[in-house]
């Protein structure tokens, strides 16, 4: 165990503020992942002639996307102003980037779900413009699939691009955890929805996603230092433990999902639940890390004690801090290597 | 506009945001906490001028601080810290020799009451009272502004950072982005204006436009809050630290004045008498978007991994 860190704070009060987000956001993280993965699976199923897997993937994608959009709008402080998201396109804001990713992906996911529904109609009702659906079908599905991976990956940047200690410190591995989680969850849904003879690819995707999520989550915890603590404590800790057990069990069960329909359903449900637990766990851990000044102060204080405050360097290369004004107080003497003055 | 330094390093924030060369000089605050008397005139003046509603007022048991923190309804916040330390050579008053009044005295059983005129205060602690008026830092590289998806938060011609109330949709992203925990979505009170919208200090943008001093600085009776051109304030601050060091107050140090720090220096900076975290400041804050290019690269790699993984799952072997 790491010894209890000592640090100073102002009456134990938080320094950074936790996000005002509630269950909407982790719900969206989960549903967005399911939508993205399902679009990929649907396109693959379409190209390889797996009609039931294709149908379930397309319908799951639009359902999950709808849940996502409702959650995102509901989470706003002023939901009636949600269209203001489209006023600007701003690369420095992962939320703006995400808005545009969703705005590009959404219409194709919607179109291909619509053509799927049209194909389900009895042929005598497929009249007039509805007959065009067949032309749109595959191109729309492929475009949705191409735009889907960013939908699954950007949400990690959304969380990491904050001062919330346990989210920011995870920025290197979190995108991989999230795409692994998205693959496992959507493949899990495919395992539940499609008959065994169509699920070969989703069994492989389920196993791959589960392994990627577990491996990258493990590595993430090891690189986060003290900010990994909230991932092991309280509600977040319980969720993360449940996520690991469910994802590992779901991944293992997927190995038998080719022989037994029961194993396929068990695996699929476990993977979906595991993915949801991962999203809620990571979300909750970040919120807790923001509420405790320890996770803000200790890593920063350690940098200073090492004499490595974050400072801008012109074309960095030299590790020595730039000379600073000698009158900036004892900090310069205590924590920085002496500047040659 | 999106130059290499847009995320990090010393820049003129207004020029970086695209204002012409003839934009006004960068404005800011130098808050000299060594002369703050904790009167909270700044808190009151700010609330009055900016029509900031009152919500959070509890007896918190944290010295004279009953306003808790900077938040949506608290754009200036005075911190009070009581410490068992002397303030330089300053006389705390606690060590003063007792004056014999000839009154009967009493103590615990067996104790000897001090003789009149004897110094009974040698065991009493040193004491100093730190007070500091906190405010939005108006960072050179402002994470809140960077992450705002609607363009509601913007850089003014004075180099400050302001929320446009009529555009913000309350997404709340700026709240966890701020490394100082300043900005917040207004939760209440019921019926107050701008509920659901991100709120923080505007450095009195309306007053600046009219050539006036921000309300808090105007109200400060000791000039602990000094308003002016950031460039000039930095010089003034350096001189003040030097003066305090000469006076034997070696604790004095500046916070936020270094244009090469993690946020490119702040427009509102401070003279502190202890480590930043004692006042509730982060000791080495960094703008989160400094790492954003790296984050996008990692996410891009993850997205490609997912695409390749899905493709492989369908191509590899037919079962």
From TrEMBL, chain B:
Binds 4 [4Fe-4S] clusters per subunit. Keywords: 4Fe-4S, Iron, Iron-sulfur, Membrane, Metal-binding, Repeat, Transmembrane, Transmembrane helix. [4Fe-4S] cluster 1 binds at residues 36, 39, 42, 220. Residues 1-22 are annotated as: Disordered. [4Fe-4S] cluster 4 binds at residues 148, 168, 171, 174. GO terms for biological process: cellular respiration; formate oxidation. [4Fe-4S] cluster 2 binds at residues 46, 201, 204, 216. The lineage of its organism: Bacteria, Bacillati, Actinomycetota, Actinomycetes, Micrococcales. This is Ferredoxin. [4Fe-4S] cluster 3 binds at residues 136, 139, 144, 178. The chain crosses the membrane at residues 299-317. Its cofactor is [4Fe-4S] cluster.
């Amino acid at each position: 165990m790491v010894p209890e860190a000592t640090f100073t704070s102002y009456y134990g009060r938080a320094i950074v503020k936790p996000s005002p987000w509630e269950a909407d956001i982790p719900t969206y993280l989960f549903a967005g992942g399911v939508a993205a993965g399902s679009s990929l699976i649907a396109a693959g199923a379409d190209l390889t002639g797996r009609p039931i897997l294709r149908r379930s993937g397309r319908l799951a994608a639009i359902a999950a996307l709808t849940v996502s959009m409702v959650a995102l709008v509901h989470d706003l402080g002023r939901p009636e102003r949600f269209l203001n998201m489209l006023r600007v396109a701003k690369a420095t804001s992962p939320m703006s980037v995400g808005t545009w990713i969703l705005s590009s992906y959404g219409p194709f996911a919607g179109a291909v779900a619509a053509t799927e529904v049209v194909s389900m109609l009895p042929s005598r009702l497929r009249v007039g413009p509805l007959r065009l659906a067949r032309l749109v079908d595959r191109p729309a599905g492929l475009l949705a699939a191409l735009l889907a991976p960013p939908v699954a990956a950007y949400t990690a940047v959304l969380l990491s691009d904050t001062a919330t200690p346990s989210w920011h410190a995870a920025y290197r591995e979190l995108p991989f955890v999230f795409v692994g989680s998205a693959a496992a969850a959507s493949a899990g849904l495919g395992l539940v929805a499609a008959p065994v003879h169509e699920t070969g690819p989703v069994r492989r995707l389920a196993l791959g996603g589960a392994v990627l999520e577990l491996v990258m989550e493990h590595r993430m915890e090891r690189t986060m230092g003290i900010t990994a603590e909230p991932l092991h404590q309280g509600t977040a800790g319980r969720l993360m433990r449940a996520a690991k057990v469910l994802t590992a069990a779901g991944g293992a069960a997927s190995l038998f999902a080719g022989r037994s329909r029961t194993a396929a359903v068990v695996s699929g449900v476990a993977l979906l639940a595991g993915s949801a637990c991962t999203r809620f766990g990571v979300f909750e851990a970040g919120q807790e890390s923001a509420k405790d000044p320890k996770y803000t102060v200790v890593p920063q204080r350690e940098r200073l004690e090492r004499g490595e405050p974050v400072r801008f360097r012109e074309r960095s290369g030299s590790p020595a801090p730039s000379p600073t004004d000698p009158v900036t107080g004892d900090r310069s003497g205590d924590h920085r290597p002496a500047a040659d003055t | 506009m999106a130059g290499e330094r847009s995320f990090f390093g010393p820049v003129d924030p207004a020029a970086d945001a695209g204002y012409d060369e003839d934009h006004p000089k960068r404005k800011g605050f130098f808050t000299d906490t060594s002369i703050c008397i904790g009167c909270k005139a700044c808190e009151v003046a700010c609330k009055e001028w900016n029509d900031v509603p009152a919500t959070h007022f509890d007896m918190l048991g944290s010295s004279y601080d009953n306003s808790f923190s900077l938040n949506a309804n608290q754009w200036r916040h005075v911190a009070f810290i009581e410490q068992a330390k002397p303030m330089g050579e300053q006389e705390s008053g606690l060590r003063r020799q007792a004056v014999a009044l000839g009154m009967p005295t009493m103590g615990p059983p067996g104790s000897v009451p001090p003789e009149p005129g004897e110094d009974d205060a040698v065991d009493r602690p040193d004491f100093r009272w730190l007070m500091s008026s906190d405010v939005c830092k108006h960072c050179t590289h402002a994470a809140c502004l960077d992450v705002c998806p609607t363009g509601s938060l913007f850089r003014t011609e004075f180099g400050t950072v302001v929320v446009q109330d009529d555009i913000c949709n309350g997404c709340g992203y700026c709240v966890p982005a701020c490394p100082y925990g300043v900005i917040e979505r207004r939760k209440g009170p019921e019926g107050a204006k701008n509920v659901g919208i991100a709120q923080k200090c505007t450095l009195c943008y309306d007053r600046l436009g009219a050539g006036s001093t921000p309300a808090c600085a105007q109200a400060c009776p000791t000039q602990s809050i000094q308003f002016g051109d950031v460039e000039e304030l930095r010089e003034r601050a350096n001189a003040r630290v030097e003066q305090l060091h000469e006076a034997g107050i070696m604790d004095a140090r500046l916070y936020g004045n270094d244009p090469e720090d993690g946020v490119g220096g702040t427009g509102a900076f401070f003279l502190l008498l202890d480590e930043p975290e004692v006042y509730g400041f982060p000791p080495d804050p960094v703008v989160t978007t400094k790492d954003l290019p790296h984050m996008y690269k990692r996410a891009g790699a993850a997205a490609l991994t997912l695409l390749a993984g899905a493709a492989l799952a369908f191509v590899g072997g037919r079962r």
